[in-house]
Amino acid sequence: MYSKFQLGKKYLQYYFTASSGNGHGVHSPFVFDFIKKVLRDNAFYDCYPVIETARKNLLQQKREIEVEDLGAGSSVTRSAKRAVAAIAASSLKPAKYAQLLFRIVHYYKPVMILELGTSFGITTSYLASGNALANVHTIEGSKAIGALAANTFERVGIKNIRLTTGDFNHVLPMLLPAISPVNLSFIDGNHRKEPTLNYFEQLLNHSTDSSIFIFDDIHWSPEMEEAWTSIKANPAVTLTIDLFFIGIVFINPDFKTPQHFVIRF
Ligand SMILES: C[S@@+](CC[C@H](N)C(=O)[O-])C[C@H]1O[C@@H](n2cnc3c(N)ncnc32)[C@H](O)[C@@H]1O
């Protein structure tokens, strides 16, 4: 992974070279619409404070839990016993991005959603709140973390989430045929090149023309940047939006030539 300094430098480079995000100069009606109606939607949604209260509660929990380290995820500590607050501070998507994921679901209304990497279920709760009619499946490898995610879903009062505990490698091949097709996937665990590309290939086999894929931490490490480059080059991919901390992928064949946008967010 990149050091904080390297990542900071990369972020500044992104920030000053990305499209401004006000929609001007973006010659794709689809992306223009995305920017106006989703990215820049500053409306208040009722679920925001409810889920952020659940996050705050996790950030205050000093007790330690036993955590299996299944991926390249943690940049802070790799010990088996970790404080809930420390995991919450380092692993969860910040509100800005989790709320964007909510708005993506709210706007495009995917009915089958899959998240790889539940952690404490904060982003899952946002995904599930975006469309009450959606089925949200989420996979978490660590049992103790999964148990706390189940608490989050109770606390937030969300019913349309199914949590499966286990390694993505084992769970995905069994789960995907049962929930296919998947309309939106959020890949947020095991941030390494080969596993990321492997998950993408599996997900592609269970997608539709309008499926959306969201990859976390695409600039987190050289490996993840290579994975992102490969994803963009995949013949199925017709449109990507790089927001630095997440990358969004569309495979809609209506977009004739592949287009890749970097937008400031
Ligand atoms: C970055 S956290 C997910 C954060 C969550 N999506 C959010 O924004 O609130 C990644 C999670 O993926 C889990 N994970 C990593 N590799 C995994 C694997 N191979 N199988 C199952 N879970 C895995 C970790 O235990 C960790 O809880």
Question: Would you give an account of this structure?
Answer:
With 265 residues, the chain is α/β, with parallel strands linked by helices. It has a single domain (4-47, 91-262), classed as 3-Layer(aba) Sandwich (Rossmann fold), CATH 3.40.50.150. The chain is 45% helix and 17% strand. The chain contains ten helices and ten strands. The protein has an eight-stranded mixed β-sheet, sandwiched between helices. A two-stranded antiparallel ribbon has the order 1-2. Helix 7 links the parallel strand 4 (135-140) and strand 5. Helix 3 runs antiparallel to helix 6 (122-130), helix 5 packs parallel to helix 6 (122-130) and helix 9 (193-204) runs parallel beside helix 10 (222-233). The chain is globular, with a radius of gyration of 18 Å. S-adenosylmethionine (SAM) is lined by residues 70-71, 73, 91-93, 115, 117, 119, 122-123, 139-142, 145, 167-168, 188-190.
